[in-house]
Amino acid sequence: MVNYEEAARKLIVYSGGLAKGSLGTARAASVGEEPVLQYLVDNDAEMNPSVLADALGYTRPRMTRILDSLVAKGYVERKNDSNDRRKVLVAATEAGREHTESTSGGGVAAVASQLSALGDQNVLELLNVLEKAYSITYNREPEINKEKKTKRRKRSSE
Predict the structure, then answer these.
(1) Which residues contact 113 (CB under 8 A, 6 or more apart)?
(2) How far is CA 1 from CA 4, 6, 7, 8, 71, in A?
(3) Of the CATH numbers 3.30.70.20, 3.40.50.1010, 1.10.10.10, 1.10.357.10, which one belongs to the domain with range 4-117?
(4) pLDDT on residue 149
(5) Most confident of 69-73, 120-124, 154-158
C-alpha cells in the first residue's frame, strides 16, 4: 500500500532539487522565468499577461513577478494595446530571443543526460505520471490525450 504523504514529500524534494539543480543552474534563471520567456518566443506574439498566466498555469500575481524580472533583465517588454490603452501586452525582446536560443539547449541537454540513465521504460513512465499529476494540478487534459484524440480524428476523417 502506498503512503501518499511520504510520496508527496519525496515528490516535493525531488522536483525542487531538479528545478534547482540541472534546470536552475543550467539556465541561470529564477524558476518560472524560462518557461514564460520560452512561451513568448515560441508564440512570437504580443500577449496579455493574464492569458499568458492561464496558458502556463501560473497565478496572475506570480506572472507579474516573473514579468517584472524579465523586463528588468531586458528580455521582455510591456506596452499598451494599441486598440485599448487600458490593456497591457508583453512580448519577448531581441535580447530575450537570443537568451532563449543560447540557453535552451543547455538545460535540456543536462536533464536529457540524467534521464538517459533511467532507461527508456522508466522515462516513459515518469513522463506519463508527471503529465497526469500536472493535469490534475492545473485541471487540464494531458497533452498525450490531446495527441491521441487528434490522431483518432484524422483517422476517422480519412
Answers:
(1) none
(2) 9, 12, 11, 14, 48
(3) 1.10.10.10
(4) 59
(5) 69-73
Query: Where along the chain do the CATH 1.10.10.10 domains lie?
Result: 4-117
φ and ψ at residue 68, rounded to 5 degrees: -55, -45
11 vs 121: CA distance, rounded Å: 19
pLDDT tens digits for 17-67? 555 444 444 444 556 788 889 889 988 889 999 999 888 878 899 999 999
